[in-house]
């Protein structure tokens, strides 16, 4: 209950920004509900007057009846205009509030550490940003005004019932505690299934995203049947939780309605006796029975919305769980980058581990001078990518310091540290836009001339001009309409345009053919000119000219030196090199 109240309070922090529209919507709803509460009394007046005319053997007073009908028509127009205005205003308030919530989620995602994405399924994160926000939006639009209307409607109906007859009103009140008890029991049983349903939906989104991304691989290995079975299992879990949550919450309305029907029958019988005894008039009995229905109607509305509200409650908790995640911390009193960066990088006694019980890097030391090309080699799992992650501050060191031009990177803002770097990865990333805009991503204020100049420097201009529409060609969502090598060259052009001080190349040529590898190497040489560069490579042929080669194994630098020095040493690097080129040299 405390968590639910806290979630509602935080939701109000978004709604209150548009409180003028919010309270106007409530005012319209209150006005319409109060007017609607007067209808039973007005409708009962002609009945009472006709009954009196007949009892007194008088002519039917049609003038009176017509006046009441005109008044009912006017009030009906006011009532419907009030409901229309409240719905229109509340929809506007909710949509703007949820826009702000989505914006905050997006900003939060950008501030979360890389470790969060390493430990959470991306499909589930996507589900929280889309499905959960949509669930909350629908609940606010459907239920907020209805709950307000139900509260006012029930209060008005109870007031009018007591005004007509206190005994019948007290009898009718029995349905309220009975309905509350029924609702509380059912909600306590169904809420866990609504939470499980939203979690299962996130799992399903993750599974679908993962398999759609690797669809070609699934087809290649003939894994369609296994994929279908796994999907069916995940989908069945969602279906099972969905059925249980809907079934249990669906019991609420018929049980609540049952109490209302019982009260209605009792009131009708006792009311008839009171009319016979002339304790109340026939018109008042008619009005009272309508008020019983007016009391029942809002209770029925709330029970109908039970599933929507419970689903939204589960979604709200999932959304705020993301918003409450710990962000990347920055130290206080941070230093600023100097106007000129030379690009010297120093690792001083650096230690790091993903798991405190399993140290990965311990007491790592090396120094890179400005403009040097540093190659990092070693077997899979040696710590090469981890070293780059530490350099970029995707993770912070647990001991020691990484310095750029003598400045400890932990004393600088993360965005300032990352602004110094350019990266070309093995998995080239392009987004759904034109080739021109994909290159311009490296420098958003770059002119078209600068973009073309970067493409020429990266040896990709010729490829682009042979494409349909050239620089204006749209890259599709999976970037499947350009080859892997072209994607690499486009990302190199993007990096060249950003003019980074320090360059990172993470196995940028490992997945292309020899001809494209030569083109990419030429492009990379232009990018690396005058810049400090870190190159992770499995193909040792690409790093022979490196100023410094770091050989890593199990998180430690076991050898370092130039290509010739390491070969002459006859250690781990020589074995690694000969395993790739020894046989080829012997055959020559």
TrEMBL record:
Residues 345-579 form the ABC transporter domain. It is found in: Cell membrane. The keyword Chaperone does not apply. Residues 23-311 form the ABC transmembrane type-1 domain. Pfam families: ABC_membrane, ABC_tran. It is a multi-pass membrane protein. CDD domains: ABC_6TM_Tm288_like (cd18547), ABCC_Glucan_exporter_like (cd03254). InterPro entries: AAA+_ATPase, ABC1_TM_dom, ABC1_TM_sf, ABC_transporter-like_ATP-bd, ABC_transporter-like_CS, P-loop_NTPase, Type_1_exporter. GO terms for cellular component: plasma membrane. The keyword Membrane applies. One of its GO terms (molecular function) is ABC-type oligopeptide transporter activity. Keywords: ATP-binding, Cell membrane, Membrane, Nucleotide-binding, Transmembrane, Transmembrane helix, Transport. Gene3D superfamilies: ABC transporter type 1, transmembrane domain (1.20.1560.10), P-loop containing nucleotide triphosphate hydrolases (3.40.50.300). PROSITE patterns: ABC_TM1F (PS50929), ABC_TRANSPORTER_1 (PS00211), ABC_TRANSPORTER_2 (PS50893). Its main location: membrane. The chain crosses the membrane at residues 20-44, 64-89, 168-187, 255-276. This is ABC transporter ATP-binding protein. It comes from Vagococcus zengguangii.
């Amino acid at each position: 209950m405390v968590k639910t109240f806290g979630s509602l309070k935080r939701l109000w922090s978004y709604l209150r920004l548009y409180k003028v529209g919010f309270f106007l919507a409530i005012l319209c709803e209150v006005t319409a509900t109060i007017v609607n509460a007067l209808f039973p009394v007005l409708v009962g007046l002609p009945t009472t007057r006709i009954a009196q005319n007949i009892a007194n053997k008088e002519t039917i007073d049609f003038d009176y009846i017509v006046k009441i009908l005109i008044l009912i028509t006017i009030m009906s127009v006011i009532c419907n205009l009030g409901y229309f205005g409240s719905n229109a205003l509340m929809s506007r308030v909710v949509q703007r509030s949820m826009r702000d919530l989505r914006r905050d989620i997006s900003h939060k995602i950008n501030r979360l550490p890389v470790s969060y994405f390493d430990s959470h399924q991306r499909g589930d994160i996507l589900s929280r940003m889309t499905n959960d926000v949509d669930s909350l939006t629908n609940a606010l639009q459907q239920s907020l005004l209805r709950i307000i209307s139900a509260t006012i409607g029930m209060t008005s109906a109870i007031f009018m019932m007591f005004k007509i007859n206190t005994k019948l009103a007290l009898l009718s009140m029995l349905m309220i505690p009975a309905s509350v008890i029924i609702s509380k029991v059912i909600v306590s049983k169904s809420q866990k299934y609504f939470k499980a349903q939203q979690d299962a939906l996130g799992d399903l989104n993750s599974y679908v995203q993962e398999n759609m991304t690797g669809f070609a691989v699934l087809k290649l290995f003939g894994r369609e049947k296994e994929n279908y079975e796994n999907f069916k299992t995940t989908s069945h879990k969602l279906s099972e939780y969905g059925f249980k949550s809907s079934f249990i919450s669906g019991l609420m309305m018929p049980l609540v309605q049952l109490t209302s029907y019982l009260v209605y029958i009792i009131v009708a019988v006792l009311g008839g006796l009171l009319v016979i005894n002339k304790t109340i008039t026939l018109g008042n009995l008619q009005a009272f029975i309508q008020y019983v229905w007016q009391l029942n109607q809002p209770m029925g509305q709330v029970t109908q919305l039970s599933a929507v509200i419970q689903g939204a409650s589960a979604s709200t908790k999932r959304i705020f769980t993301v918003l409450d995640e710990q962000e990347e911390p920055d130290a206080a009193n941070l230093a600023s980058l100097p106007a000129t960066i030379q690009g010297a990088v120093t690792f001083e006694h650096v230690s790091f581990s993903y798991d405190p019980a399993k140290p990965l890097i311990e007491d790592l030391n090396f120094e890179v001078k400005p403009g040097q090309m540093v190659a990092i080699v070693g077997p899979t799992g040696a710590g090469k990518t981890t070293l780059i992650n530490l350099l970029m501050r995707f993770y912070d060191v647990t001991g020691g310091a990484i310095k750029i031009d003598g400045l400890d990177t932990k004393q600088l803002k993360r965005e300032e540290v990352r602004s110094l770097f350019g990266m070309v990865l093995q998995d080239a990333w392009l987004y759904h836009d034109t080739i021109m805009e994909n290159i311009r991503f490296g420098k958003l204020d770059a002119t078209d001339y600068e973009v073309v100049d970067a493409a020429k420097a990266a040896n990709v201009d010729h490829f682009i001009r042979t494409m349909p529409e050239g620089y204006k060609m749209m890259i599709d969502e999976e970037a499947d309409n350009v080859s892997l090598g072209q994607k690499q060259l486009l990302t190199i052009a993007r990096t060249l345009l950003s003019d980074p001080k320090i360059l990172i190349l993470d196995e940028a040529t490992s997945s292309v053919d020899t001809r494209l590898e030569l083109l990419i190497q030429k492009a990379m040489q232009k990018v690396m000119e005058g810049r400090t560069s870190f190159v992770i490579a499995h193909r040792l042929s690409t790093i022979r000219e490196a100023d410094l080669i770091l050989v890593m194994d199990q998180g430690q630098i076991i050898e370092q030196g130039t290509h010739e020095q390491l070969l002459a040493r006859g250690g781990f690097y020589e074995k690694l090199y000969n395993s790739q080129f020894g046989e080829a040299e012997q055959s020559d």
